[in-house]
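REQUEST FORM: STRUCTURE PREDICTION
Request ID: SP-0412
Submitted by: Lab K.M.
Chain count: 1
Length (residues): 98
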Amino acid sequence: MKKKKYTPPFAFALSWFEPEQWQELRATVDDLADLHDSYENWLADAERLVNRCSKQGQRVAKVRYEIAEWAAWCERHNLRKDGKARSQYAGELAKRLR
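STATUS: Completed
RESULT:
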């Protein structure tokens, strides 16, 4: 019987966006000043974070979702549409991946 390779749990969940979502995200968030100006800048930082975590043996869940669904979730939970809510939503969705 073959041994199953150990896969460490996710260190954290990261909201992962596609280029075509960027303008919608920027139009939706309450923390625009804290958001990267361009998708390319965001992607470069996000990839650096994932690579750094990977080198430390931590897994990052790249969580893709629809902006409108996230915004509705924020409304239902009475949350600002900001980085904290993006992280929280990604974490909720990542729990389903385990």
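NOTES: The mean pLDDT is 90.
Reviewed by: T.R.
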